[in-house]
Inverse folding.
């Protein structure tokens, strides 16, 4: 599981982004993403992928994108 944060007190911003790759019941893999304000329940999105390498590649791309936007 990868957990990254973005905080900016001057803008009252305190956000998190979590992602993990999990096996599903249909012999596939799912990228599970959750994001929102720190201390609050977040929104969840499930992205199905046919194999583990596709799911891990999607997770790495998403993490790189979030880090470019200021998450660390």
């Amino acid at each position: 599981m990868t957990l990254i944060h973005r905080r900016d007190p001057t803008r009252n911003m305190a956000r998190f982004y979590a992602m993990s790759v999990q096996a599903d019941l249909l012999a596939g893999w799912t990228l599970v993403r959750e994001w929102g304000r720190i201390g609050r329940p977040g929104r969840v999105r499930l992205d199905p992928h046919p194999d583990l390498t596709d799911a891990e590649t999607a997770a790495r791309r998403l993490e790189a994108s979030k880090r470019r936007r200021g998450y660390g």
In short: The first strand starts at residue 2 and ends at 8. The helical segments are 52-68. The chain has a mean pLDDT of 96.
